[in-house]
Amino acid sequence: PLQRGIEDLLAPLRDVAPYQLGEAWREPLDASLLFGPPEEAWFSIAQEMTAAGVGERVASTSFVAAMDPGERARLLERVRQLTAGREEPFAFPYVTEVYLARSNASI
């Protein structure tokens, strides 16, 4: 599906950019006395999108926005190819992960 194709384009870029995926952020948070343990929640949504909207969504991702302009243009062209010919609007499902660490203000 479309999401897999987009993820296949973005995954190699995440390997060279700081990002929120993975667990590297947990160790310093767990070691800190400033915050309690993180609470986690996941929310599924299917957003109605157009091909242009998917391109804008990908372009707004921080590590895509920070790319060399020529590389970013090539990536966004590949995204356009993935969305070409779809009846619009179409469902674009994804999951939002939310983490909340409450302050230990008394410290």
How would you describe this protein?
It is a single chain. The model has no long low-confidence stretch (mean pLDDT 90). α1 (2-14) runs antiparallel to α5 (69-83) and α3 (51-59) packs antiparallel against α5 (69-83). This protein has five helices and two strands. Strands 1-2 form a two-stranded antiparallel ribbon. The chain is α+β, with helices and mostly antiparallel strands.
Notable features of this structure?
single chain; 107 residues; alpha+beta; 5 helices
Element layout with pairings:
Blueprint: H1 2-14, H2 26-31, E1 39-49, H3 51-59, H4 62-65, H5 69-83, E2 90-100
Helix pairs in contact: 1-5, 3-5
The run of helices and strands is HHEHHHE
Q: Low-confidence parts lasting 5 or more residues at pLDDT below 50?
A: none
**Mean pLDDT rating:** 90
Number of beta-strand segments: 2
Largest sheet: 2 strands, antiparallel
Number of helices: 5
Question: What portion of residues belong to β-strands?
Answer: 15-25%
Widest sheet: strand order?
1-2
Percent of residues in helices comes to 40-55%
Q: What shape does the CA trace take?
A: elongated
Indicate the structural class: alpha+beta
Computed CA radius of gyration, to the nearest angstrom: 17 Å
Kindly, what is the distance between the CA atoms of the first and last residues, rounded to a whole number of angstroms?
49 Å
